[in-house]
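Hi C.,

You asked whether I'd gotten around to modeling the 208-residue construct. I have! Everything is below, sequence then structure, no commentary in between.
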Amino acid sequence: MSMLLELKLKLTDKPVLRGIDHYWSVIMELHRAGEPFTVRDVDMAGNANKASVRDFVRRLERAKLIERIGATEGGAGIFRPLVVQSAAPQVRRDGTVIESLPANQCMWNMMRGPLARAGFTWRDLVAWSQTDETRIKPLTAKAYIKTLSAAGYLTVVQPGKGSKPAIWRLLPHMTTGPAAPKILRTKMVYDPNKNTIVNPVAADEVQP
C-alpha cells in the first residue's frame, strides 16, 4: 500500500479532511516518510476542494516554505518542505508569513484561561485577548461568542440587559484542546482538536 493510501482517513465519523491544518499534516507525513508531494497528493488524502489545496501550496511556495524539485509527466509541480513544524504556517496570498496569533486563537486562549473562569463578556475578550500584534475588534469578539454559543461551546452565566453585555462561560466538556475552533465559510464551526464540525458540510477554512 502506498504512503498516500495510508494517509487517507476513514470517514465513519465524518471528519473534516480539509483546511490548512489538514493540508500541512499531509505534507509533514509524506516528508517524514521521505516522499515529496504534489497538489494531487494532498487533495487525494482528504475531502477538500482541490482549488483550496492549490491555493495553500501556492502560498507556501511564495513564502519559500516549500521548494519545487521537479514536475510530473503532466507538468504538475513536485515539492518538498523547507521547514518542519507541527503547526500549519499562516501565509497571505502574497507569500508573507503571518507571525502573530489569529484573533480567534487569542480569544480561545483567554476563554480557556483563569481570567475567564468566572465568566466573560465580549468586552472582556477585547480587553484581555489582545496582544501587541493582534488587535480584537468588538464585532469580532461578538461574532465569535455568537458562533461558539450556537455550536454548544458556551453557556450564559448572566443574560445581557440594556447596555450591559451578557456574561458567558466555556462549558467544561467543550474545552476540547489548545487549538481554537475555526469558523468556516459556511459559518459552521470546525474543531481541529476533534477534527469534526457541528454538521459536516462542504466548507473550507477562511484564510486571510
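If it helps when you're writing up: Residues 144 and 166 are 14 Å apart (CA to CA).

Thanks,
B.
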